[in-house]
Amino acid sequence: MKGIIFTELVEMVEATFSPELMDELMEEADLPSKGIYTSVGTYDHTEILTLVSLLSEKVDMPVVALVQAFGQHLTRRFVIQYPMFCEKVESIKAHWDSLDDGGQLSVS
């Protein structure tokens, strides 16, 4: 999984909860990457699952709610950071589906 997903999760957790909580998650998760992410790196997707599961326990929120909040955060950030890929997208679902399929984003 691309590092930008991880760096955005870190930013969301720090902004929504606290930098201290993010540090706590990183320590407790004992991740292979040690939680050192760069936006251009590639990391095992299980690390994000571990972080979200731990976050769920710490803040007493369901994983589903956290994933939905992260999806909203990520969508807003991508629209800001990469507007050229979002300008003519029919729907955000179509956009995510095209990325998930590994295909090129079709802009009509």
Describe the structure.
The chain has 108 residues and is mainly α. It has a single domain (3-100), classed as H-NOX domain. The chain is 63% helix and 0% strand. It is built from five helices and no strands. It has helices spanning 3-16, 19-29, 45-59, 63-81, 92-100. Helix 1 (3-16) packs across helix 2, helix 1 crosses helix 4 (63-81) and helix 2 (19-29) crosses helix 3. The longest helix is centred in the middle third of the chain and has 19 residues, at 63-81. Residues 103-108 have low confidence and may be disordered.
Which secondary structure elements does this structure contain, and how are they paired or packed?
Layout: H1 3-16, H2 19-29, H3 45-59, H4 63-81, H5 92-100
Helix pairs in contact: 1-2, 1-4, 2-3
